[in-house]
Amino acid sequence: MSEKPSDDQPSASELPDDVWEQFTRDTERDIRASAPKEPSARARMVTERLRRQEERGELPPGWRTGPDPLAANRRAGRRRKLWAVLGVPVAAAVALVALKPSLLPGDPFGPDGPGDAAASPLPAETAAPTAPPGGSPPRTPTLDEPFAGSPALRWADGAAGIVPPEAKAVGPASKDRVAQALELTKRLLVGANLDPRTLRGARPEAALAVLDPRQPKLLDDLNTALRSPSERNDPLTMFSRFDPDETRPVGDVVKTRGRMTFEQGSHAGVVVHADYTFVYPVTRADGRPEVARTIVRRVIDVELPDPTRYRVTPGRLSVKKYDEEIGNSACDVHDGYLHPRFPSSDDRDREPTGPTIDPYDRSRGIDDGGPCGTVTRT
After folding, report:
1. Is residue 271 assigned to a domain?
2. Domain containing residue 245
3. Is CB count within 10 Å lower at the N or C end of the chain?
4. Are residues 86 and 94 in contact, defined by beta-carbon separation less than 8 angstroms?
5. Separation between Cα atoms, residue 245 and residue 225, nearest integer Å
């Protein structure tokens, strides 16, 4: 309930003069502020220009009212719905991978789960190792996993494991000549040890094409060994070859590890020293699902002389020295092929007779093992 004003409250006529004058000024100010104002000349020009643009259709719809808040909400709603649709399968996939990481492409955590570095690739070898590679968990190689249980599992595949060093000028040999020598050496190694035709027992034409025909003694010996293999002329001293009637390769990967170095040659050229090990997984040609691995290490010195000073064929290599060490191949068999022993082999007359060696040990010299050694692992 409202109260009736008392008769003793002052009327407007009884207010002091200064209060009444302040009231009058404030009222006039408020009236002026709320009164309509005549637009300036510039404002009238802008308004007229916008009107004409609107008539010509040059302004977007809704330019007078600003953005539609409902449209923005609709777009946000679509984004939320999209995330709701994607969120469920993504969350399920994350949970599934957490339970079984091997489902990821390439099995990034290795065969034994997260943190296992067993299958992580090794960096390229740039210096002689100081010890043999560590032991691997004992696993039987299979057709699906031919390098299981082998240190070579971490080695590079094929030619990717032959990484020449950076070329630099040495003595009178220019940087380009050194680079040429390194590239030719790689071609020789690939043609002699990785070319599928060579591995199947065919003539290693790609490797022979790199050698200088003006070095006739070497080529004569190699041609004789390929044509009529014997203990004296054995093509395995330079080439890796398997008998296609006895074995066939498992997959198309040969594991490779090694290094190259170079130095000034004696014929105004450059000498390249190569030391590489190749691991070959094979199975029986008769279809029995057994897998064996043969390991071949090759050490070779080749020279690219200066053809302007010596009677040599430009772009061809002269072989100065070569040697090999073979692990897991029959002894005293000189038919020009490697003969790996399989788990079920019973040919006791072809047992290795030399000292025990680790074919993966690249820290020792190649002459330390002797001929036809007994391997500690394959």
Report:
1. yes
2. 151-375
3. N
4. no
5. 20
- Cα separation, 119 vs 155, in Å, equals 9
Tokens of 200: 């199947």
> Angle CA(248)–CA(252)–CA(258) in degrees, nearest 5?
110
User: Is residue 194 located within the same domain as residue 307?
Assistant: yes
E-state strands within the chain: 156-157, 247-249, 255-264, 270-284, 291-304, 318-327, 356-357, 374-375
Check whether residue 348 and residue 200 sit in a common domain.
Answer: yes
Backbone angles phi, psi at 319, to 5 degrees: -85, 125
Q: Is residue 212 part of a domain?
A: yes
Cα(189)–Cα(317) distance, integer angstroms: 12
Q: Is 341 a domain residue?
A: yes
Q: How many domains does the structure of the chain reveal?
A: 2
CA distance 250 to 223: 28
Which tens digit of pLDDT belongs to each residue from 351-361?
666 788 899 99
pTM of the shown model: 0.69
User: Domain check: are 101 and 162 in the same one?
Assistant: no
Cβ atoms of 322 and 222 within 8 Å: the answer is no
Look up tokens 């691991």; give the residue.
279
For residues 224 and 113, membership in a common domain is answered with: no
- Whether 288 and 364 map to the same domain: the answer is yes
| CB 312 within 8 Å of CB 318 | yes
266: closest CA among 221, 321, 216, 219? 321
